[in-house]
Amino acid sequence: xxxxxxxxxxxxxxxxxxxxxxxxxxxxxxxxxxxxxxxxxxxxxxxxxxxxxxxxxxxxxxxxxxxxxxxxxxxxxxxxxxxxxxxxxxxxxxxxxxxxxxxxxxxxxxxxxxxxxxxxxxxxxxxxxxxxxxxxxxxxxxxxxxxxxxxxxxxxxxxxxxxxxxxxxxxxxxxxxxxxxxxxxxxxxxxxxxxxxxxxxxxxxxxxxxxxxxxxxxxxxxxxxxxxxxxxxxxxxxxxxxxxxxxxxxxxxxxxxxxxxxxxxxxx
Length: 268
Prior knowledge:
Layout: H1 8-14, E1 24-31, H2 34-43, E2 50-57, E3 75-82, H3 88-91, H4 93-109, E4 114-117, E5 121-124, E6 127-136, E7 143-150, H5 167-171, H6 177-198, H7 205-210, E8 218-222, E9 228-235, E10 241-245, E11 251-254, E12 258-261
Parallel strand pairs: 1-2
Antiparallel strand pairs: 2-3, 3-7, 4-5, 5-6, 6-7, 8-9, 8-12, 9-10, 10-11
């Protein structure tokens, strides 16, 4: 397996120079977490548009405090620092914007059927290939979006083998991490500009619905206010997941919380 380090200059050379995007690129071989790195820089006043990329994370994390480990040369661990002029209730939709960018970017490199498990997982064949974590500062002056993609991972532990996959395993060949990174970043800035211009996801609402694996599936919503099961109907214009409850037939707009899909991962 090829485990060479990132060719950062190749990534910089291939990035599209988007009008209105002041993009700065930072790279480190080992870091605690690219999200934490970006947040530290955000507190220092680094402008929005900064991109943080690392070979290896010693304390990488996913949603709900889960640990995400990366081996050198096999994955994309990247975070973007943004300073969007948005109300707090719209920040959530940036996770969906990044989800679209990941799907679009990977499709440009690999011929694979990719879907989104709302709100922050990208999957192939029912297995997770990418996680997305969006965090906002307490003062709402910056937002960090982190992604972790299994690119050239050749095997997973027994614990993860049933739920995780990689581009290498799905394609049966080595995949350029540089190409994947560049295509996702170029797609992100495209979708991000549209989102900032419209203030919502209306421009790619239907596109998102088509790749939403939750849609038309039985789901379990784990919410502090009370868990429930139902049928996922898709998303609304605010990016919330619409779920028709089994217990009373009411349709709920789910804004946050863990959502498990029957037959996917651990919801059986």
